Amino acid sequence: MLMAPEECARRARAAAAQGVIEALVMTGEGIDRHAGLRRQLKAWGFGSYASYCAEVCRMCLAEGLLPHTNIGTLEAWELDLLKPWNVSMGMMVETVSPGATRGVAHRHAPTKAPELRLATVEEAGKLGIAFTTGILIGIGERPGERVETLEAVAALHAKHGHIQEIILQPLNPQPGTLMARWSKPPDEDVAALIPHVRRLMPGVHIQIPPNLVDDLSALLRAGGDDLGGIAPEADHINPNRPWPELEALDRRLRPGGMHLKLRMPIYDEFIAAGWCPAPARPAVEKQLERRDQAEGLLAPAAAGGIA
After folding, report:
1. CA distances for 76 relative to 70, 95, 128, 212, angstroms
2. Residue 69 and residue 119: Cα distance in Å, rounded?
3. Are strands 163-170 and 131-137 parallel, antiparallel or unpaired?
């Protein structure tokens, strides 16, 4: 069930009133393939799911929120529709492993074919979209294939320079799913990939999901430098792994000489280099001003960098 545009606008206003910074537009994939959802979109005046999401992002920008859309595999025309109203976009490549693609993880997910995922990352680069991607660890791939996935992303980044950050995300098996009995990869599997990201994509940030690892401080000492967006609501994908509370997380990191630092959904260096679309610049500038005024304070729904 899609949320009506009016409800999206209401929630955007409520979030802005709470001091939220980022509007993450994230859903399942292949919405346009469902006849019922196509009829709903048409009734609202939208010819595609991408055009609906673009309008939602425009409404969020109007409220001062910074949209980041992650709705899976997209074609160039869809990315082009979304670009003006998003400060950045994202999509996990997950893996290029043939075994994982044919196995339990992706067997029933045709849009997660590696060639389609990489094509989306490529088109985002051609369009000049600041982009976040990453790999999913422990879904049936071999260790060497994790590095091959990073190499495939690095090749696209070398051409377009558009990758802001790489997410190194371990599988978190959920009850009631086909992978419920699978094992969660150890932190060591995550740590082993950090040097490869540094080697292949110097300067690209490395996100460690703070609620999906066991020893966050150790992974940050190993070279991770970002925690992604920490939301004021539950992690609906990983309900058994709630988001850390910001103040408590900051206290936990400080003994190791680290502290949380607020960042925008588009990194400062990408803003300085002109990657922010013109329609989004007023909202970005307002949020930057707000951040500068509140330097040292923690904000809800902050994207967490490590300093």
Report:
1. 14, 21, 12, 32
2. 17
3. parallel
One-letter amino acid for residue 239 of the chain? P
d(CA 303, CA 229): 4
| Contact call for residues 32 and 48 (beta carbons, < 8 A) | yes
pLDDT values of the chain reduced to their tens digit, one per residue, 307 residues: 799 999 999 999 999 999 899 999 988 788 888 999 999 999 999 999 999 999 999 999 999 999 999 999 999 999 999 999 999 999 999 999 998 888 888 877 888 899 999 999 999 999 999 999 999 999 999 999 999 999 999 999 999 999 999 999 999 998 888 888 999 999 999 999 999 999 999 999 999 999 999 999 999 999 999 999 887 777 878 888 888 888 889 998 999 899 888 889 999 999 999 999 999 999 999 999 988 887 644 444 445 555 4
Cα(172)–Cα(231) distance, rounded to whole angstroms?
18
Three-state DSSP class for residue 234:
coil
75/140 Cα distance (integer angstroms): 27
Hey, where are the domains in the chain? 84-306
This prediction has a pTM of 0.92
Q: Which residues contact 81 (CB under 8 A, 6 or more apart)?
A: 48, 50, 51, 54
The CATH number that domain 84-306 falls under is: 3.20.20.70
Sequence letter at residue 74:
L
Rounded distance between C-alpha atoms, residue 19 and residue 4, angstroms: 23
- Contact, 274 vs 52, CB < 8 A? no
